[in-house]
Amino acid sequence: MPGNKVSRPCHHCKSRSASAPTDTSKIHYEKFWLYRHCSSVQQRDRQAQKAGQLFSGLLAMNVVFLGSAFISSMIFNRVAITLGDVWILMSILKVLCLFWIIYYLLGTSRQPHAVLYRDSHAGAIWIRGSVLLFGSCSILLNVFQIGYSTILIHCKSKVDIVFPSIGIIFICTQAYFLWHHSKDCIQVQHNFTRCGLMLTIATNLLLWLLAVTNDNLHMEIESQLREVERRFSGKAAFSHPHLRNETALCTCSDTTVCKVFQKGYILLYPFNTEYCLICCSVLYVMWKNVGRRISHHHVPHTKPKFKLQGVVFGPLLGATAVIIGICVFMMYQIQVTSLVPSRQVFVMYYSYYIVLLPLMSVGAVIGTIIHALEKKELDTLKNPTRSLDVILLMGAALGQIGMCYFSIVALVASDPSDLLNSLILSYSVLLIFQNITQNVFIIDGLHRQRFTLPGKEEDTKEEQNREDQRRMSMLELGQELRKASLSYIHSYSHLSWKRRALREISFFLVLCNIILWVMPTFGAHPVFENGLERSFYGYSTWFVIVNFGLPLGVFYRMHSVGGLLEVYVTA
């Protein structure tokens, strides 16, 4: 069912695809045997595209259901399905994805007219940078896991070493693939490419699900063992003795190397979940771009660049929030890692959030009002990247919002008059409001057309006519450059207060979301430690809620940074 190749070869298609449109009459449209009798070529092409997306989606759905069944069976019946069995299934999926990625790199992408177009909105530098950052952390995580399993080889199976080894190869290959080909709008082998992308998406989703559930078990064991240490007097009974017996069979010795591998593994674990989610989002955009033909007016002539000009208060307030947040985070980590954490550390932690979240909400509301006051047209062009950004923002926010509502119910039903309970209740309400207002601000900003300073169009024309400028004399060229510089300075000095306010607000929210991403990513999890919601819902139920909501919350903060940077740049 692959799409047909293009008849006329082109040796410069990759170099010119990023900027210049191609004659679509030379491209063979997609075909599908179910719609071979359609009279219109365009209609047959659209129906074939929908059919290819449907079949590849069904493939991904079946793979996800199969993997989810394995992971669920491992959780509820550890005797029949073990973690090693799940790792074997995941290794098979990784190998299949590796074969397809290598085939795409060496075969599909090198065919004539394979990549005639490249989506300028897809694969932003911050997204590809995040893939490399979290991919590097995931590789280091697998290295620590291999070292830890090697030291405890007497009680570990060989699968504990083989699975992370395959994981390192998979992460490296996938990161290279996404870095170089995330913008591709592939025009050949449409259905095979769609199936390969969907298989890779399903594999990453299952790796994320496995990481969440496996992290759930590790956090539960660690927290319960800490409870045992607190109640070491012997009067309190251990609630789950089978967990203690299992961990006692294969524990880390007192050697320094083993402790380093163990602590490094625990520290880097959240980065693996983020890596899987980012890869899924990039791969989904590539899947939507398969067979996409970008018209001339979709291709931007210039790309706005990130500059710090014109922002003062946003960076100052944001840097203050980051510095205070780092101090709070360090104090929290020092207190919580002790055997008897102080109640005051939770009061300090939630107080920081209660002060910061209203400021972020007010900034987002003001930014939304400014967007409403502007007389700018909405960008209604088809943009899969922007559509995915909106879906990810709304979907990832559900993780934090869901946890907050569970906390609100538990606290109101318990004792809302207590100081700590009142702080957590206020934190939950403010966090819901902040997520909603920030989503509205970002989504509205992403749909606005890019702002162009007066005189910028002349600068764009000058860039497009560089060949003519080279023929000018040095004196004439100097005069033209001086005029362009004076025009830019004059236009920037008269930049409206609305644009400046949007840039200040966006930059402030970027720094705030960075610190709110750093704190939970590097181990600040008060929802695990305060014990209030856990005592209300029960240990297992609350851990399931948190371990599904917390990774989504971390991903939301990171994705919000990218959206806010886009709003800042376009302002």
From TrEMBL:
One of its GO terms (molecular function) is proton channel activity. Its main location: membrane. Keywords: Cell membrane, Hydrogen ion transport, Ion channel, Ion transport, Membrane, Transmembrane, Transmembrane helix, Transport. Residues 1-21 are annotated as: Disordered. It is found in: Cell membrane. It comes from the Eukaryota. InterPro entries: Otopetrin (IPR004878). The chain crosses the membrane at residues 54-75, 87-106, 126-149, 161-179, 191-211, 266-287, 308-332, 352-370, 390-412, 424-443, 505-524, 536-556. GO terms for cellular component: plasma membrane. It is a multi-pass membrane protein. PANTHER family: PROTON CHANNEL OTOP, PROTON CHANNEL OTOP3. Belongs to the otopetrin family. This is OTOP3 protein.
